[in-house]
Amino acid sequence: MLLSRLLSNDFPRSRVLAVLLVALLLALALTPFLFPGVKALNVAAKVLVFTVLVASFDLLLGYTGIVSFAHTMFFGIGAYGVSIALTRMGPGWGALALGVAAALVLSFLLALAIGLFSLRVRAIFFSMITLAFAAAFQTLASQLSEFTGGEDGLTFKVPEVLSPSFELSPEPFLGVSLDGRLLCYYLLFVAALVLVLAMLRIVNSPFGRVLQAIRENEFRAEAIGYRVVVYRTASAILSALFATLAGAILALWLRYNGPDTSLSFEVMLDVLLIVVIGGMGTVYGAALGSGLFVVAQSYLQDLLRLAGDAASAVPWLSPLLSPDRWLLWLGLLFVLSVYHFPTGIVGRLRASGSAPGRTGSRPAPASKTENHQGDNVEHPAPEGR
User: Fold this and answer.
1) Count: domains in the chain
2) Cα separations in angstroms, 131 against 222, 237, 246, 248
């Protein structure tokens, strides 16, 4: 019963998917003890941040059908809110709370403005407007060096209990130092877990069902009484707020923020790739896609170096496995994943897990009744108006 409430009755519906999700959760929870070293901890923290960021973007793309390129703008607002507050007010919890609150307010106002003025614009035109907003904000962050540090960014101190110099205990536990860095990581872990569960609750609520109805057929949703612009604007605002919180926890972990860290278009491309790999329209896809992509991005060069050394006797193969060509292999892995998993990893696993005769499959979302002519007519649920 508790698990059902936590997951908002959105179970994996596939044994393989359930095993992968549990394995990912345990790996992230036990990373400091299973994978010692600074790099492994940084990779795990990046997976947590990207899980929240990608899930928030999928709230727009996968559940509402909106393609926005301004998502990194809200991500950067959260990071800059924390960095500016802690730089100017000092490393205190009050400054941290004020920075997060100010970033959320600014993101709310910008998302509302974009939603009200731009969501009536269709398809590619809306995407171009959001891209212009993101580019303008990145330029603004680079030029306002007095506040944002310009191209160099801001390096700041965090509250002492989250600082690496803080020692919770002089004696290590299971070979791991109990310091502020460890506490900061578990703060990120808990925050990411809570935010992901909150998004699961949103997409499985009546509000989330209406968003999916708008994605499938906007005109039909409008015809049966739902105010599409209001729901799409609300979706854009929620997505922006979750992205802002993702940026805040990234800045808290790095103790640094700059335009290339949170506002770069490369971050937006990574988010798009992860959504496609994991599967659109599912929060679980954001978690699995982020784990797979970030790990591959972080360790592919090391694997290619080992493979290149092992294949040094083969003249033509060793240069091909050079670590300098890691982007080539990453692109190849992406193409193969799209080819074999056209609906994403989660979509493919759920399709195989919901085959006829298997348990755990979810009934169709819309009930069918007989009309007076004997035809089947779908009646959408009235909730969420």
Assistant:
1) 1
2) 27, 17, 20, 22
Percent of the chain surpassing pLDDT 70? 90
Name the DSSP class of 367. E
DSSP labels, 240-263: HHHHHHHHHHHHHHHSEE-HHHHT
For residue 99, what pLDDT band results from cuts at 50, 70 and 90?
Answer: very high
- Which helix (H) or strand (E) segment holds residue 376: the answer is strand 376-379
> Regarding predicted confidence, which is higher, 366 or 212?
212
Confidence of residue 123 (pLDDT cuts 50, 70, 90): low
Return the pLDDT at 132: 87
pLDDT digits (tens, 9 = 90+) for 284-294: 999 999 999 99
Q: Please give the residue range of the domain that contains residue 36.
A: 2-355
Q: Which one of 4-18, 144-158, 318-332, 337-351 scores highest in mean pLDDT?
A: 144-158
**CA-to-CA distance for 54 and 274, rounded, in angstroms?**
7
Q: How far is CA 80 from CA 94, 158, 251, 298, 300, in A?
A: 16, 14, 8, 25, 30
Q: Which CATH number do you get for residue 223?
A: 1.10.3470
**Is 249 domain-assigned?**
yes
What sections of the chain are H helices per DSSP? 2-6, 15-29, 31-34, 38-64, 71-89, 93-118, 123-143, 145-148, 180-203, 206-216, 218-223, 228-254, 259-262, 265-278, 283-310, 317-320, 326-340, 344-353
Residues 43-63 pLDDT 10s: 999 999 999 999 999 998 888
96-112 b/e with 16+ CB inside 10 Å = b? bebbbebbbebbbebbe
CA-wise closest residue to 251 among 177, 153, 143: 153
Please say whether the beta carbons of 256 and 155 come within 8 A.
Answer: yes
| Residue 84, both tokens | 């500016």
Task: Tell me the mean pLDDT in the region 108-118.
Answer: 84
With 0-12 CB in 10 A as exposed, 13-18 as middle and 19+ as buried, what is 333? middle
* Residue 362 located in a structural domain: no
User: Closest Cα partner for 294 from 278, 315, 316?
Assistant: 278
